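Marked as duplicate of an earlier ticket. Keeping the data here for the record.
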Amino acid sequence: MLCSDHTTRKINFEDLKSLLLYRKIIKWDCNKIVLDNGVEIKIEETDHDCCAMAGGKFENVTLDAAITKIEEIEYSPWEDDDTYGCSARVVFLHNKNVVCAAEADADAGNGGYYYSVASFVVTVPQESETLVCHFVSETGEEGA
């Protein structure tokens, strides 16, 4: 969850794309990517109730290739004997080659009675606020 010592501003997926396009990923681990202009992007649980959980990771990252296209988010709803949720994936490309994949999952907790949200959390150098872009909730595209 986000720390309360920072102000946050919600942005949409198009705004996130504009921050990423034509930038290079210069550093990464499964928890975050850092762009050549210092922008840092994480995938975090930004809202939940009770025992529901959400989170995500980055994978298949190629450093030093400019991001020239960002595909639309693909949603995959799922359910099991105890709950339901949704997985999401978005791919960043350089021409037609994958530069980075972001994946997240959100569930509805025990019995499917609760909610959770995973978001892209963006830190821009010299900015006083953190930007938050909805990625996936337990029901898919828009949160609870």
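See parent ticket for discussion. The helical segments are 13-20.
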